[in-house]
Amino acid sequence: MTSDEHETDCSVVLSEVYLYLDLECSEDRRRLIQKHLDECSTCMREFGIEHDVKALVGRCCGDERAPMELRDRLRNKLDQLEVQTETREYLP
Question: What is the pTM assigned to this prediction?
Fold first, then answer.
């Protein structure tokens, strides 16, 4: 399947894979991401890599969790993050 054939765009799914893995998204969003991963082998391969990295970090860090204050500050910073992309239009 291509991105055009999915209800949710591949780039969106891959950008939210850590929220999915950390159970930090709504149940509806989890179902939507899981459905996409079930249907999209490309994203599933990428998810597999992400899942392995997260498992490795989990094994190395044990059950340690960042303090809630730190997590809130990081979320606020990420919410403020702006991604800039460059587009170029080629005219004949």
Answer: 0.49
Comparing 87 with 24, which gets the higher pLDDT? Answer: 24
**What backbone torsions phi and psi does residue 91 show, to the nearest 5 degrees?**
-105, 140
What letter represents residue 91's amino acid?
L
Residue 72 lies in a domain: yes
Q: Where are the alpha helices (DSSP H) in the chain?
A: 10-15, 17-21, 27-39, 41-61, 68-80
Say how many domains are in the chain. Answer: 1
Cβ contact 33:13 at 8 Å: yes
Distance between CA atoms of 60 and 91, rounded to whole angstroms?
A: 52
Unique residue bearing structure tokens 């490309």? 42
35 assigned to some structural domain? yes
